[in-house]
UniProtKB/TrEMBL annotation:
PANTHER family: D-ARABINONO-1,4-LACTONE OXIDASE (PTHR43762:SF1), L-GULONOLACTONE OXIDASE (PTHR43762). Keywords: FAD, Flavoprotein, Oxidoreductase. This is FAD-binding oxidoreductase. Coiled coil: none annotated. Signal peptide: none annotated. One of its GO terms (molecular function) is D-arabinono-1,4-lactone oxidase activity. Residues 13-181 form the FAD-binding PCMH-type domain.
Length: 438
């Protein structure tokens, strides 16, 4: 297998790595590679920070191992290689009346990445996390051996792999539980929430299959926490014309996302929904992956890149979210991209992110003052009994991780057996000392 030296980054572009990558096209080639020179796997690198980086080392790019392997029309079980993206699955399967049980906010996430981060979607309050719908996975261990893992037959290894950041080995393929849908369109109802209390009440009362909220992080005072709630249901019928994709051709200048411009944009975005609300029909991928039509949209944050802060706090700690929103609005660091959702208790692994509560995600340009703000938000999260999302993190320090993830020691014990030589360690794992016992 040929290794190619390159420099690469996560989606936030603020953290980078230099090292050697291999891109196997066949499972046999991958197995030979792992037997000779084991290394962690990466996919489309849609993790925002350093979860997908191995600076100074090697990594296996799985994106060429992207084949559909089988589908059972009766049970809805889809088997595919780990490099296949969820967007490709939706594009092929939605017209046939099936979609993955859980779909995250980008279609560029691969199956392997979705398992390794145990991603969640707009239906987490009903459906739980992605890996809860993985019936089985084929795991290639760092020693070159391969095994079929199920949550029934090997619960400890499965729970260490789901949300386990690739530390037990490389997921080669998986059998996924799909959800039947009437068609490949979504009926979406949009409503304004005038402040945080109204927003939270709407989230709590929602019984829709899919629910997500855009939140205006520039709003202050009586409007603090205002936003737009989207509730959606799969539907059938005429498919609206899809909008063409666009590409950001260059790194945007610093003023492009300055506070005055973001404030004006957010005001217009909030007002685009009538006060009485509205219901629209969208293609299924436009609803699930709204930003994927803008290729390289991360370049809008300029050459320095950006950080995304995402936390979840328990239901009883909702005032912590209000506090965070007040601090972000007062900082002048806001961006147009901020999301508030209600999450349920579902999680598949020891290090899976979700808990029953509220999750807030916000993008901030990679500036020193933004990094200071994010560290403050992380402290507020930990103090509230919540946790940060490894798939988005670039700045957290190791001290608070055991508090946020109480099953960390159980995960460490399994990983130590699966990868005793530390061949699968990545930059995030090193930075947060995830594999180092207290």
């Amino acid at each position: 297998m040929r290794w190619k030296s390159t420099t690469y980054a996560g989606w936030g572009r603020a953290l980078r790595a230099a090292g050697e990558l291999a891109r196997p096209e066949r499972q046999a080639t991958l197995a030979a590679l792992m037997a000779d020179s084991p290394a962690p796997a990466i996919g489309k690198r849609r993790s925002y920070g350093d979860a997908c980086l191995n600076d100074g080392g090697r990594a296996v790019d799985m994106t060429r191992l992207d084949r559909f392997l089988g589908f059972d029309e009766t049970t809805g079980a889809l088997t595919a290689e780990a490099g296949l993206t969820l967007g490709e699955i939706v594009a092929v399967m939605a017209p046939r009346g099936w979609i993955p049980a859980v779909v995250p906010g980008t279609g560029f996430a691969t199956i392997g990445g979705a398992i390794g981060n145990d991603v969640h979607g707009k239906n987490h309050h009903h459906a739980g996390s992605f890996a809860q719908h993985v019936r089985a996975l084929t795991l290639l261990r760092p020693d070159g051996t391969q095994a079929r893992i199920t949550p029934e037959d090997d619960i400890d290894l499965f729970r260490a792999t789901a949300g386990g950041l690739g530390q037990t080995g490389i997921v080669v393929s998986a059998e996924l539980e799909m959800t039947r849908v009437p068609g490949d369109i979504m009926t979406v109802t949009e409503r304004r929430a005038e402040d945080f209390d109204a927003f939270r009440a709407m989230l709590d009362a929602s019984e829709a299959s899919y629910t997500v909220g855009w939140i205006d992080t520039t709003a202050k005072g009586d409007s603090l926490g205002r936003g737009i709630l989207e509730e959606a249901e799969p539907a059938s019928g005429l498919v609206p014309l899809k909008k063409g994709s666009k590409r950001v051709p260059m790194d945007a200048p610093g003023f492009a996302l300055s506070h005055p411009i973001v404030r004006v944009f957010n005001e217009a975005y909030y007002r685009r929904v009538p006060r009485r609300g509205r219901t629209v029909v969208r293609p299924v991928d436009d609803f699930f992956f709204p930003l994927d039509r803008i290729h390289d949209w991360n370049r809008l944050y300029g050459k320095r890149g950006f950080h995304q802060f995402q936390c979840v706090v328990p239901l009883a700690a909702r005032e912590a979210i209000r506090d965070m929103l007040g601090r972000i609005a007062g900082s002048g660091l806001s961006s147009p991209l901020a999301v508030l959702k209600r999450t349920g208790p579902g999680r598949a692994g020891h290090l899976s992110f979700p808990m029953e509560g509220y999750t807030l995600a916000c993008d901030l340009r990679a500036l020193p003052e933004a990094e200071k703000m994010i560290r403050t938000l992380e402290d507020l999260t930990a103090d509230a009994g919540g946790r940060i999302y490894f798939a988005k993190d670039a700045l957290c320090t190791p001290e608070r991780i055991p508090q946020m993830y109480p099953e960390l020691d159980a995960w460490r014990a399994v990983v130590a057996k699966a990868d005793p030589k530390g061949a699968m360690v990545t930059d995030l794992v090193r930075r947060l000392k995830l594999r180092e016992a207290a």
